[in-house]
Design a protein that fits this description.
It is a single chain. This protein is mostly helical and 514 residues long. Helices cover 82% and strands 0% of the residues. Helix 2 packs parallel to helix 6 and helix 7 packs antiparallel against helix 8. 55% of the residues are buried.
């Protein structure tokens, strides 16, 4: 288990750095553009390539490709490379065609993604122009995800985990240059996205060359592995990407709301995705290859203990993170974003959406682990059914809640769908006996609840009145926020220690791996 924790720590640290640079990027944009109609247009133009990034880098393709790739490990290299090249060729061709069609029909794509923009011609025109620029990012991010999946399967995590850092740094450079030279910041963001996509792809080639796996595109539909990936990938596209599809639908609803609603939701999603990326994505990235290997080797007991270990970590980190995000939502926005064009009203409206999203944070952590458990066993049908069910529930929630609660209602509907998702996935894994509870769960759950209650009281007391945060300077806000978070973490860990939870318990060897 030591190597699992080491890999998890590596991915988490890289993801943390990426999210930090992502926050720097968002703060820079908030100062330069704020929650304006121009940024609404950019967010809409970002939806499709960003959907592709999450779908391929963190979702369907990786979930379908890695389990099949693990079955080729140990085979002669010609067979291994034949499979790699065939997948690479087909994937590149399909995505390239999608990019070209998307650029040609950019106006129609925007009209579908955000129909409300059609009511304002300048917003529709700008979003269409930006989409033409950003669409090629989809091709670069798909190939990057393909290379990253190969590296992850070989237990090489550094380059794939570092790729988003390169992307964010590039976008920061582009938007900063545009701001200080008087150029369009939203256009600079679009070009920075494409340039960052190219650079993060190039980053993967050095480790690929070191392991002797440089893919060359080939079209070979007779390769059995390709057909298997295609068979699995169809259901995985919906089963592993319900949150991304739901985000696009939320944007469609938000396009009819007052100006700024799309941006408020986007900023809230960005903050919400911070812990998901550090913990949830890192867990699934590390556990999927391990679970796939255990499933292929028919090591059922070790597979079950690995799932149990992953879920314990989602609760240990997810519950206090959700509480902290909910309590500190407005101070976080005031501290990080309330500068320049980003107003106090923008902080308040964005914070409300973040609080609604935060209600489902533990569910999103657990979904990552449970989907990995399903996909590693090449079980994609049930997650597909779950995804469709949850998507329908979320859309129904949008219709019911968007009227009385506006953009916050859209976030609440998403949280409802996430909890339904995790509940059904949990039932399936337990019912199939792929996860048998290890001893000590009741005590562990009580320890988490009591420690979280202590964290809640401390954070609530230290936060004080929100009005105070508005009058503080930038440095005072940052120090106050960091102090509250630091004290909260210490109190949480201290209470867990007093309640008998020791680090060696969480770092034990549940999967049976030395």
């Amino acid at each position: 288990m030591v190597h699992i924790v080491k890999n998890l720590s590596l991915v988490s640290v890289c993801t943390l750095l990426s999210r930090i640079f992502g926050f720097v990027r968002d703060v820079t944009v908030a100062v330069c553009v704020g929650a304006s109609w121009q940024y609404d247009a950019f967010v809409v133009a970002l939806r499709i390539p960003n959907f592709g990034r999450r779908l391929f880098a963190e979702g369907a393709f990786t979930q379908a490709f890695v389990p099949v790739l693990c079955t080729y490990e140990g085979k002669p290299k010609p067979a291994y490379m034949r499979f790699i090249n065939a997948v690479f060729g087909l994937l590149s061709l399909v995505v390239l065609l999608i990019v070209l069609l998307g650029q040609y029909f950019s106006g129609a794509c925007v009209a579908v993604l955000a129909p409300g923009l059609s009511l304002t011609p300048e917003r529709l025109t700008l979003a269409s122009q930006l989409l033409v620029i950003t669409f090629p990012f989809l091709l670069f991010v798909v190939i990057t995800a393909f290379a990253a999946a190969i590296l992850n399967a070989r237990q090489h995590f550094l380059a794939p985990a570092s790729a988003p850092i390169v992307l964010n740094v590039t976008m920061i450079g582009f938007v900063s240059f545009a701001y200080f030279t008087g150029l369009s910041t939203v256009h600079a963001l679009a070009w920075g996205l494409v340039a960052g996509g190219i650079l993060q792809l190039l980053l993967q080639f050095l480790p690929l060359s070191r392991i002797g796996v440089i893919p060359k595109p080939a079209l070979d539909m007779q390769e059995p592995g390709v057909r298997r990936v295609l068979t699995l990938m169809g259901p995985a596209i919906l089963g592993g990407s319900v949150w991304q599809i739901n985000t696009i639908i939320d944007g469609m609803f938000a396009s009819f709301l007052p100006s700024g609603s799309i941006s408020w939701l986007y900023y809230a999603e960005r903050l919400f995705e911070f812990p998901i990326g550090i913990i949830g994505v890192a867990l699934s990235t590390v556990l999927l290859p391990l679970m796939s290997a255990k499933s292929h080797q028919k090591l059922d007991a070790e597979f079950s203990r690995t799932v149990d270990w992953g879920i314990r970590w989602t609760l240990l980190l997810g519950v206090p993170a959700a509480v902290s995000l909910f309590l500190l939502a407005e101070p976080i926005f005031i501290t990080l974003f309330q500068h320049g064009a980003f107003t106090a009203q923008d902080s308040l409206k964005s914070a409300w959406a973040l609080q609604a999203f935060a209600l489902s944070l533990p569910a999103h952590f657990a979904i990552r682990v449970l989907l990995s458990a399903h996909y590693s066993r090449q079980n994609f049908r049930f997650p597909l059914k779950v995804a469709i069910c949850c998507l329908v529930v979320s859309v129904m929630g949008n219709f019911a809640l968007v009227g009385p609660y506006g953009h916050v209602g859209l976030a609440l509907a998403s949280s409802l769908g996430a909890w339904l998702n995790v509940g059904l996935l949990f039932w399936s894994v337990v019912h199939a006996k792929a996860w048998v509870f290890e001893p000590g769960w009741l005590r562990y759950f009580v320890q988490i609840i009591i420690a979280t209650l202590g964290l809640t009281l401390v954070v609530w007391a230290l936060k004080g009145e929100v009005a105070v945060w508005h009058v503080q300077g930038v440095i005072a806000r940052a120090l106050s926020l960091a102090g509250i978070v630091g004290v909260g973490v210490l109190v949480y860990l201290a209470l867990l220690f007093c309640l008998g939870l020791r680090p060696k318990t969480m770092l034990a060897n549940p999967s049976g791996v030395a």
